[in-house]
């Protein structure tokens, strides 16, 4: 249950070269230009404006019929320019987060990540947790692709821009954008011109890293002039690993990516435009883990560590002009299969064989099969009068099947010998799916949700915009679980005699409610805006896996309830010095109630309960300055203080959260800056220089040290630079990322096993330098 559309609001600062400084709105769907030469010139010149003013940036996050100037919309949005990121060889979710101070990403491998925003977070990545709903939604156009702890990295999208929305978007977007949303807006096919591009990137990563290579191509084909167009994009890439396995000397975490996308636009009439797209992706990689007591960037794994992510994404969007309003229909279907395998020799040996050698070659394996269908109908007013509105209906249904296995070579014979059980077999004696397998788990969910929403804005005296919105929703989740194998058969077992019967559970959770939103924006003049807004965010509840009482010492509730928050924000948006500078400031206060707290038990089981209240408060500043026609700087910074408003008593003393405890995974201070300069050479040729710097403060992996699983994620600083030469539609660039190696650790899992060599550290890619060639035709 994760679809969520966005209310009317934005705060964007235009950091040159990376944060968009160009006019981001496409031509309206019903408008066709007749000047092919002008269009081609505009494509070649994209992002190279020589105006002394900062160009207008328009967004579609308001869901209005037309794109809106981001400086005129009252809430926080940062707009990123994909072309600027590409010049640095960047484009992943973690790269986006480095330039958005309110946003953080923990990353453990390709597609294994967790997004947080404004300190609204209580847990890290748990690959086997099926119930941990996302707080930050990820979209491709109108399509939700969010999966908590596993948002996909799609590099084939041919993006026009990226809109990052901070704060709850509960009116027009649904339950999973409680803290914010990341919207990836794609380029739409052109129905008139034939054009395309080819881009090749080669680079090398320092340390244990090696050579990297990427190839991307795009072609736009007009199938029928001014009627139909097809846009095809392909991407293939190989990124070297940079973690060394001291067990066998292998480099463990290389990534191979193959993706393709086809987009079709049909202008069936002057009133009807149809867009259809299909995206396919396959990513094979490893795990970016190292151990803190080993040499830097080294791990110890008896088995290969692998991840595989296969995704298909389909969308059909219809825009129909009804005269007084525009009808928008979006139908989306997602199918995704992921598989995650980590070498787990230390827990297997410690939990079952008391840590005695030899280490057991055990594979911690998680598989997910996800299908999701979402349908939205939306009506947008077309009136030029003072009242503008949006209203619609939304339906979503989905299934998720999670499979967890723990195959362990030689387990049956060793267990039979140490427990005086001759001929022991995991499959026949404990019901595991295979022999030599001490845990087999199946968790299935089916979810459905429906919603009605509406939002309207009334302009008073051409100065004051008053906005009110409401979303009514209802959702249901059915949950079915079956655990077997030695560690799954713990019902009725005791630590002294850990053999019981399979654990099974079936339950259902239903929730319904309303999400309101209010906003006021006062336009001092066309360049200065004051605003205030208040909005509610909501997340559905879910179902817990059973916890065996005799083995863990407590029972867990079968379900947990929804949680929700109210966020209040005031801000000012200003365009200064005859549009040469923008300066935007906002302050926010968020109160989060009935928080879904994650309790991880010493017996390795876990459950979620509603306990306590969290407050997040902070200040954000973003700005950009056009120094000359060819030189610009941009900056942004954020301070966040998120903490437990009162003591949280969970029933487990070690899990209790003290009042005032800081939320995990939430840096207090973050900032970034970009600079760029373009030097004209001969004719239209030019040289471009750009650099970006990002700082993220330190964070911790739990609320308090007394809870355990408490480690510091050290602060990071990332320096990137690029030098490009552009001539006659060809761009050649040199780039370097993480040049000072100031970004090292992206996540930490605290060690609780004596035989393991320290905490598990998940490492960011070290310094990488390369060359990029792009040709447009």
N- to C-terminal distance: 43 Å
Please identify the oligomeric state. single chain
Mean pLDDT: 88
* Low confidence ranges: 1-34
Task: Give a verbal description of the structure.
With 777 residues, this protein is mainly beta. 6% of the residues lie in helices and 52% in strands. The chain has 7 helices and 42 strands. The strands form 9 sheets. The chain has a 22-stranded antiparallel β-barrel. Residues 1-34 have low confidence and may be disordered.
Please name the defining characteristics of this protein.
about 5% helix; about 775 residues; 42 strands; single chain; mainly beta; disordered N terminus
Question: Which SSEs are present, and which pair or pack?
Answer:
Layout (H helix, E strand, L loop, with lengths): L35 H9 L13 E2 L8 E2 L6 E5 L1 H6 L5 H6 L4 E7 L2 E6 L18 E5 L2 E2 L14 E8 L13 E7 L8 E11 L5 E14 L3 E12 L4 E2 L9 E13 L4 E14 L3 E3 L6 E2 L6 E16 L3 E19 L1 H9 L9 E19 L5 E21 L3 H8 L7 H5 L6 E24 L3 E21 L18 E23 L2 E12 L2 E2 L5 H4 L6 E2 L2 E14 L4 E13 L2 E5 L5 E5 L3 E13 L4 E14 L24 E12 L5 E11 L2 E2 L11 E2 L2 E12 L2 E8 L7 E5 L10 E4 L4 E9 L1
Parallel strand pairs: 6-9, 13-17
Antiparallel strand pairs: 1-2, 3-8, 4-5, 6-7, 8-9, 10-11, 10-42, 11-12, 12-14, 14-15, 15-18, 16-41, 18-19, 19-20, 20-21, 21-22, 22-23, 23-24, 24-25, 25-28, 26-27, 28-29, 29-32, 30-31, 32-33, 33-34, 34-35, 35-38, 36-37, 38-39, 39-42, 40-41
């Amino acid at each position: 249950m994760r679809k969520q559309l966005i209310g009317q609001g934005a705060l964007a600062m235009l950091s040159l070269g990376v944060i968009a400084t160009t006019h981001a709105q496409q031509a309206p769907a019903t408008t066709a230009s007749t000047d092919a030469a002008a269009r081609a010139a505009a494509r070649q010149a994209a992002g190279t404006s020589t105006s002394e003013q900062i160009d207008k940036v328009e967004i579609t996050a308001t869901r209005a019929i037309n794109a809106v100037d981001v400086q005129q919309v009252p809430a926080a949005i940062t707009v990123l320019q994909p072309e600027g990121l590409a010049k640095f060889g960047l484009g992943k979710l973690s790269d986006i987060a480095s330039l958005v101070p309110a946003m953080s990403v923990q990353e453990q491998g390709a597609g294994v990540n967790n997004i947080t925003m404004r300190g609204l977070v209580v847990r890290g990545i748990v690959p086997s947790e099926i119930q941990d709903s996302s707080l930050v939604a990820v979209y491709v156009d109108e399509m939700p692709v969010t999966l908590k702890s596993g948002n996909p990295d799609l590099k084939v999208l041919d993006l026009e821009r990226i809109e990052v929305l901070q704060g709850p978007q509960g009116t027009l977007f649904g339950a999973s954008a409680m803290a914010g949303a990341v919207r990836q807006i794609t380029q739409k096919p052109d129905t008139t011109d034939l054009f395309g591009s080819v881009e090749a990137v080669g680079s090398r990563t320092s340390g244990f890293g090696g050579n990297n290579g990427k190839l991307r191509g795009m072609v736009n084909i007009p199938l029928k002039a001014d009627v139909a167009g097809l846009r095809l994009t392909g991407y293939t890439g190989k990124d070297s690993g940079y973690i060394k396995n001291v067990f066998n000397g292998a480099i463990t975490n290389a990534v191979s990516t193959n993706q393709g996308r086809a987009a079709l636009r049909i202008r069936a009439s002057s009133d009807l435009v149809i867009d259809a797209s299909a995206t396919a992706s396959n990513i094979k990689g490893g795990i970016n883990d190292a151990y803190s007591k080993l040499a830097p960037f080294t791990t110890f794994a008896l088995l290969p560590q692998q991840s595989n992510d296969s995704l298909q994404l389909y969308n059909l969007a219809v825009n129909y002009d009804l005269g007084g309003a525009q009808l928008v229909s979006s139908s989306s279907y997602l199918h995704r299969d992921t598989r995650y395998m980590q070498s787990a020799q230390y827990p297997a040996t410690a939990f079952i064989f008391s840590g005695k050698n030899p280490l057991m070659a055990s594979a911690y394996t998680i598989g997910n099969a996800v299908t999701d269908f979402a349908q939205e109908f939306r009506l947008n007013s077309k009136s030029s009068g003072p009242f503008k509105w949006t209203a619609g209906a939304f339906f979503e249904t989905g299934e998720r099947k999670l499979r967890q296995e723990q195959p362990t070579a030689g387990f049956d014979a060793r267990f039979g010998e140490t427990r005086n059980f001759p001929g022991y077999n995991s499959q026949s004696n404990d019901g595991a799916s295979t022999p030599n397998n001490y845990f087999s788990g199946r968790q299935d969910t089916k979810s459905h949700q429906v919603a009605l929403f509406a939002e309207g804005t009334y302009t008073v005296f051409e100065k004051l915009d008053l906005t009110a919105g409401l979303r009514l929703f209802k959702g249901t989740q059915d949950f079915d679980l079956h655990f077997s194998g030695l560690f799954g058969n713990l019902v009725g077992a005791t630590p002294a005699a850990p053999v019981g019967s399979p654990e099974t559970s079936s339950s259902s959770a239903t929730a319904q409610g309303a999400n309101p939103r209010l906003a006021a924006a006062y336009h001092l003049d066309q360049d200065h805006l004051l605003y205030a807004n208040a909005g509610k965010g909501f997340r559905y509840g879910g179902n817990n896996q059973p916890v065996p009482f005799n083995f863990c010492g407590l029972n867990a509730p079968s379900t947990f309830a929804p949680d929700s928050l109210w966020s209040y924000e005031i801000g000012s948006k200003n365009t200064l010095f005859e549009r040469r500078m923008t300066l935007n400031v906002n302050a926010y206060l968020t109160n989060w109630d009935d928080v879904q707290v994650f309790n991880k038990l010493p017996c390795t089981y876990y459950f979620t309960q509603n306990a306590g209240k969290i407050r997040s408060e902070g200040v954000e500043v973003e700005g950009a300055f056009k120094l000359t026609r060819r030189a610009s700087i941009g900056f942004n910074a954020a301070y966040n203080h998120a903490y437990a408003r009162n003591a949280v008593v969970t029933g487990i003393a070690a899990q209790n959260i003290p009042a005032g405890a800081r939320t995990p995974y939430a840096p207090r201070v973050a900032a970034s800056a970009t600079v760029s300069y373009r030097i004209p050479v001969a004719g239209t040729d030019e040289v471009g220089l750009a650099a970006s710097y990002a700082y993220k403060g330190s964070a911790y992996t739990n609320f308090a040290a007394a809870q355990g699983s408490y480690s510091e994620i050290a602060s990071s600083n990332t320096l990137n630079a690029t030098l490009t030469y552009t001539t006659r539609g060809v761009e050649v660039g040199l780039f370097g990322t993480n040049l000072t190696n100031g970004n090292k650790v992206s996540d930490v899992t605290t060690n609780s096993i004596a035989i393991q060599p320290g905490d598990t550290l998940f490492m960011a890619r070290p310094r990488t330098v390369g060359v990029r060639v792009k040709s447009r035709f």
